[in-house]
Amino acid sequence: MSLPEAGNGATALVTGASSGLGEAFARKLSERGYRVALVARSEDKLRKLAEELGDDAEVLPCDLTDHSARDRLVAEVESRGLDVEVLVNNAGFGVYKDVAESDRERELEQVRINVEAVVDLTHRFLPAMLERGRGAIINTASTAAFQPIPGNAGYSASKSFVLTFSDALHEEVRKKGVTVTALCPGPVRTGFQDASDAHDFAEKLPKPAWKPPEFVVERALKATDRGKRMVVPGAPNRISGAMARFSPRPVLLRVLRMTNS
After folding, report:
1. Among residues 93, 155, 161, 192, which one is catalytic?
2. Beta carbons of 73 and 117 less than 8 angstroms apart
3. Buried b (16+ CB within 10 A) or exposed e, 145-177
4. Which of 4, 73, 132, 252 has the smallest number of Cβ neighbours within 10 A?
5. d(Cα 37, Cα 74) in Å, to the nearest integer?
6. Which residues does residue 179 pair with via DSSP β-bridges, in sequence order?
7. Active site residue 96
8. 222-223-227-231 Cα dihedral, nearest 10 degrees
9. pTM of the model
10. What are the structural domain ranges in the chain?
11. Pick the CATH number of 10-260 from 3.40.50.720, 3.40.50.12780, 3.30.830.10, 2.40.420.20
């Protein structure tokens, strides 16, 4: 299993494509010869990117937190005759406050885009991949998926869901020509920090953990080409991820709480 062959109308649909990892995914997949469907809220940014990528870029503005908007997105994909052979569920943001102090609607919006949209789009596009006997899904999780993070509870829980969902889905389809890969990056300098109001949190993270979007995306695509279940780009993040997974939970929680206070 690997990324399906580009060309002949094969489309890669990328959510959160207006900046950061999503933009990097769109550029790299376009370079590989895929028609790229660009999905995000910001139509202006998508159109600017599409102008750079050329005629094989489709602009599909969508608020992924809205179920009816996702209905319209899929209907538009079908009306344009796009065969989605690569799905990159990348859109997302985080809430960096204690739950009791955070905005309730913002917490729910976080779940809708980080979890609900991932499940919904996967469910909509996976059956056709299985019918064709080829396809790839890349779900952007995070090293936050490896640990419960006080002060970032909903985000770490949502990314844990994405990782677990991707793991199980990988096993369900791995003998049917489709690859599912969970991307678990550490910190990346993108628009995520602005969308999540996470600059204070980000400044506390060690500098070696930070990786540029292009590096993360290259590692993700290489892992998908090899049929990998999960990829954690960068040695520092693989080490910290392993420590988080295998540290005693009470100790880990106390350390994370002190770090994020």
Report:
1. 155
2. no
3. bbbebbbbbbbbbbbbbbbebbbebbeebeeeb
4. 132
5. 11
6. 136
7. no
8. -170
9. 0.88
10. 10-260
11. 3.40.50.720
Q: How many residues does the chain have?
A: 261
The total of other beta-carbon atoms located within 10 Å of residue 204's CB is 10
Tokens, residue 148: 């419960």
Look up residue 117 and give its two tokens. 């949209």
